Amino acid sequence: MLEDILNTGVDKTTKTFSPNTFMPIYTTCYNMCTQRQPYNWSEQLYQRHGDTIKAYLQTTVLPALRDKHDEYLLKELNHRWLNHKIMNKWMMRFFMYLDRYYVKHHSLPTLSEAGLKLFKTLIFDVVKKDAVNAMLALINRERDGEIVDRGLLKSCVEVFEAMGLGSLDAYNQDFEDFLLTNSEEYYARKSQEWIQTDSTPAYMIKAEDHLSLESQRVTNYLNSSTETKLLRVCEKELLEKHERELLDKEGSGCRYLLQNDKSEDLARMYRVFSRVPEGLPPVAAIVKQHIEQMGNEVVNRREAQIASEPKKESASDPTLIKGLLELHDKYKGVVNGQFAGNALFQKALKEAFVEFINRSVGKFTSADYMSTFCDRILKGQQKLSEQQVEEYLEKVVQIFSYLTDKDLFAEIYRNQLSKRLLNQRSASDDAERAMIGKLKLQCGAQFTGKMEGMLNDLSIGADHQSDFEKHLKSTAVDIQLDDFSVQVLTTGYWPTYKALEVNLPPSMVKCTQVFKDYYDNKTSHRRLQWVHGLGGATVTAMYKKKKYDLMVTTLQSIMLLEFNSDKEVITFPEMVEALNLSEETVKRLMHSVSCGKHKLIEKIPKGRTIATNDKFKFNKEFKCPMRKIRVAMASLEESHNPKRVEEDRSIAIEAAVVRIMKARKTLPHQQLLAEVLSQLAFFRPNPKVIKRRIEALIDREYLERDPEKASTYRYLA
Predict the structure, then answer these.
(1) Claim to verify: residue 604 and residue 678 sit in the same structural domain
(2) Dihedral through CA 437, CA 442, CA 444, CA 447, nearest 10?
(3) How far is CA 304 from its chain centroid?
(4) What is the pLDDT of residue 288?
(5) What is the DSSP letter of 482?
(6) Mapping DSSP to helix (H, G, I), strand (E, B) and coil, where does residue 40 land?
(7) Does residue 705 share a domain with residue 660?
(8) Does residue 112 share a domain with residue 216?
(9) Is residue 311 part of a domain?
(10) 600, 653: one domain
(11) Angle, alpha carbons 688-692-696 (nearest 5°)
(12) How far is CA 584 from CA 499, 571, 581, 641, in A?
């Protein structure tokens, strides 16, 4: 009856056997298995169960499958497998009592297992090779864009899964291994075709689409465990084997995409090669080379500009820094956008910038250009909103992080900061504090300690001035408060300035003495030293009955007051003697008032430079439409002191050596060198310099050489 139902193809969803048919059969089986020997037929029934299924598979199922090929074979296999599941189910139900007792007590395979094993041995093992070939042919047709019967493939995969009898061994060995080999051959062939005809972006689109389809294929009809293995095979054939060729392809490779800002293609390149082990380092290497090339072009353009106009070479020219900021903005955006902020590409960006940002351009270093660029912004020389100032400073600090000579930047920045603060040229105190805060975040409190001290000096200065005014009122000294103010600076915070012993006019001597008396009473442990080179004054002058307010430095004002004397002409030596200053300083003073834009003093003979035999007299013919005149003068101070930077570096190196040796007691030279370099954050010294500092420490008996190993040092407590 059961075979007849299977052969005629009765609707399998309906109940195949009614209770009236089923129960007598079950009862007969029960009775045959519950008798005592020799009337217990359990063994014979178990044997007959297997023989029945075996006979049906051999006489009916196998001949039906042998006639079929390709897709028809798969359909027939699927049909026969569904039939076998029905047969196995009912045979197990009929002989359920046999399963419960006889099979269990004799540790035999269950009726269901026995039925599956028979199907595997008699049917599956015979047709599996042809079935796999037919399945792979269908899969390849689908890869080529044809529509195939996915349901049929899914059903056939289920047969392979079931034949493992509880494991995936049959699926893995009899189907998956062949699928992976087939996929490898298919994509090896396809990739070879595409690489010859397509550009890199077109190839990557196809590769990404096919990888996505393979993933979808697993979802549609393959076992989920196949996905990782299948994608790995495809990635290897499509991407790994052709990576170098794709990246270097003329007119469409990685460098071309970077040069032409192909954002979408770069993002795709990152996505596809991130799937491949060690797929990203070659891309990052090209990105680094490209950024480095672009950065060198920016620096080279500036060098060419200087070469064509040497007289215009100045660290205050913002061209170079603006170019570097734009470049950094652009490629930081590429790294964060197209390359998802990956650490490899962050490192590539950093290494590329370190290469060209530390190049000197003409007479100036990048530290000069950066600090002077900040100086322009903080002085408000460029019309920028508060937000734009904040953005610019943030960007400068980002490229500052690539600078190796951070200590040199700090020295230059501190000098420029002092001039802004003392000359009241800062556009915003908040912007100054914000910039120092950014540097502190980047390099630590040690780096910005002196700069913060300078700002604090000025904020305390207002209180000093207020106290001084109260002191003047209480002592009734004959000095106008509006005419005289003093800024007290802490020596350790500010750059080192020349203290010039200039001969002050009596009115100034009186003022300084009054302040000194006040300050000595206020503090007992501090010593005042006047730095007149930093001071400023407003001098009232009469030219042809017109009054002018001359905004000058303290030294210029002292020099101008010399022309109030009865002498009509003052010689250069006389001026040097009167002021008690060096010839070089007097030359700069005289040049500012007799050779500059505003010729307040007439030089005899006329000329653009000052000589020691020149004479000077009051210029009665001077006139200017403005009432207030700022008289510029060449600075008496260097923008920074290179010797001081070198001294600070020597101290830092020695401190690092002693710190390391104190902890380690004994170290070989190379290891000590490496540790010192890792500890120095603000500059990167030459190993020869470190060696000289070690020798100096040995001379001063901080260290000694190991008597047995000359290249090893020992710490002396």
Answers:
(1) no
(2) -80
(3) 31
(4) 94
(5) G
(6) coil
(7) yes
(8) no
(9) no
(10) no
(11) 165
(12) 15, 15, 8, 18
The letter for the amino acid at 639 is: S
Same domain as 134, residue 6: yes
Which has the closest alpha carbon to 560: 580, 544, 537? 537
> Does residue 642 carry a pLDDT above 80?
no
CB 236 within 8 A of CB 181: no
User: Smallest Cα–Cα separation from 136: which of 221, 68, 55?
Assistant: 221
What pLDDT shows up at residue 14? Answer: 54
Q: What is the DSSP letter of 618?
A: E
| Cα–Cα nearest to 187, from 139, 119, 244, 223 | 139
496 lies in some domain? no
**Total H helices, total E strands in the chain:** 32, 9
Q: Is residue 297 part of a domain?
A: no
Residues 152, 242, single domain; the answer is: no
Residues 6+ apart with CB under 8 A from 153: 74, 135, 138, 139, 220, 221
Question: What are the tokens at 19?
Answer: 């209770």
CB 269 within 8 A of CB 340: no
Domain range for 405 is 365-485
Assign 612 to helix, strand or coil: coil
Give 137: exposed, middle or buried? Use CB within 10 Å, 0-12, 13-18, 19+: middle
DSSP string, 295-339: HHHHHHHHHHHHHH-GGG--TT--HHHHHHHHHHHHHHHHHHHTT
- In 647-702, at which residue ranges do the beta strands (DSSP E only) sit? 666-668
pLDDT digits (tens, 9 = 90+) for 56-105: 888 887 887 788 888 888 888 888 888 888 888 877 777 777 777 777 77
| Token pair 């390359």 in the structure block, residue | 339
CATH of the domain at 190: 1.20.1310.10
Q: Can the peptide bond before residue 605 be classed as cis, meaning omega within 30 degrees of 0?
A: yes
For the entire predicted model, the pTM comes to 0.76
Mean pLDDT of 105-115: 76
Residues 95, 29, single domain; the answer is yes
Q: Name beta bridge partners: 571.
A: 615
For the chain, how many residues are written? Answer: 717
Which phi and psi (to 5°) does residue 72 adopt?
-65, -35
Cβ(519)–Cβ(488) below 8 Å:
yes
Burial readout 681-694 (b: 16 or more C-beta within 10 A, e: otherwise)? ebbebeeeebeebb
Specify whether the backbone of 645 is left (phi greater than 0), alpha (psi in -120 to 50) or beta. alpha
Q: In angstroms, how far is CA 428 from the centroid of its own chain?
A: 31
Whole-angstrom distance, CA of residue 160 vs CA of residue 175: 7
Asked if 694 and 655 sit in the same domain, the reply is yes
CATH number for the domain including 555? Answer: 3.30.230.130
Q: How far apart are CA 99 and CA 92, in angstroms?
A: 8
Residue 454 in contact with residue 494, Cβ under 8 Å? yes
426 in a structural domain: yes
Q: DSSP secondary structure string, 518-548?
A: HHHHH-SS------GGG-EEEEEEEETTEEE
